[in-house]
Amino acid sequence: MSRSVHGGRHELGQNFLHHTPTIDRIVRLVRATDGPILEIGAGDGAITGRLVALGRDVRAVDLDEHRVRRLRRRLQSVTVVHDDALRTPLDRPVVVGNLPFHLTTPILRRLLTDGRWTEAVLLTQWEVARKRAGVGGRTMLTAQTAPWFDFTLHARVPADGFRPKPSVDGGLLTISRRREPLVDPADRAGYEQFVRAVFTGRGRGIGEILPKSRRATLKAAGIPPSALPRDLTPRQWTAVWHG
């Protein structure tokens, strides 16, 4: 097969999913959503072909021009676009993607700052999926975005479910935009700065890290003073913020 002008598999970060149980689960999750679908990183179309069967408008995006050409021939009912996931418009209500592992964080950051989609069904590295869903503690990025988005971990995907086999397992993650944000969108920049300050602040627990003016909210929100920033739930974060 010809090499893409953007490089080979390693440069493109391509690990193609062939794990049928995971593909089935992705399709079930998408079926529960409504509206046109955007698939990023379509690759060889293992997911794309199944999405077509849902009878919805599908736009598939891939950076490899050779795979784009083959998908256009094979799936003529799909709009197949040669584009970069870091630039393509995220203008459909449902986003689906087997994300290139080396681009997971920038693609997620882009998704979480774009306002035109409502549901995302994503395959990422296992550790990324765990952290985004708050398993074992939330990251700063998750805490910063949780007032507007809900993260759910659905499954661990074995590394040998991809071809070529990556060095780590995958994780199936969904992100839903909250219909009722926990923080006013107009306050988002200030809230994100507040979360950053707490995550990077000095102290042995949230009771020491928080400014004194906000410490009174801890007991009402059910937060022990010894809790670490990673331990707080989205509603606890917003209680501290509003306090």
UniProtKB/TrEMBL annotation:
The keyword RNA-binding applies. Residues 22-179 form the Ribosomal RNA adenine methylase transferase N-terminal domain. InterPro entries: KsgA/Erm, rRNA_Ade_methylase_Trfase_N, SAM-dependent_MTases_sf. GO terms for molecular function: RNA binding; rRNA (adenine-N6,N6-)-dimethyltransferase activity. Transmembrane segments: none annotated. SUPFAM superfamilies: S-adenosyl-L-methionine-dependent methyltransferases. S-adenosyl-L-methionine binds at residues 15, 17, 41, 62, 84, 98. Gene3D superfamilies: Vaccinia Virus protein VP39. Keywords: Methyltransferase, RNA-binding, S-adenosyl-L-methionine, Transferase. GO terms for cellular component: cytosol. It comes from the Bacteria. Belongs to the class I-like SAM-binding methyltransferase superfamily. rRNA adenine N(6)-methyltransferase family. PANTHER family: DIMETHYLADENOSINE TRANSFERASE, DIMETHYLADENOSINE TRANSFERASE-RELATED. This is 23S rRNA (Adenine-N6)-dimethyltransferase. It comes from Amycolatopsis tolypomycina.
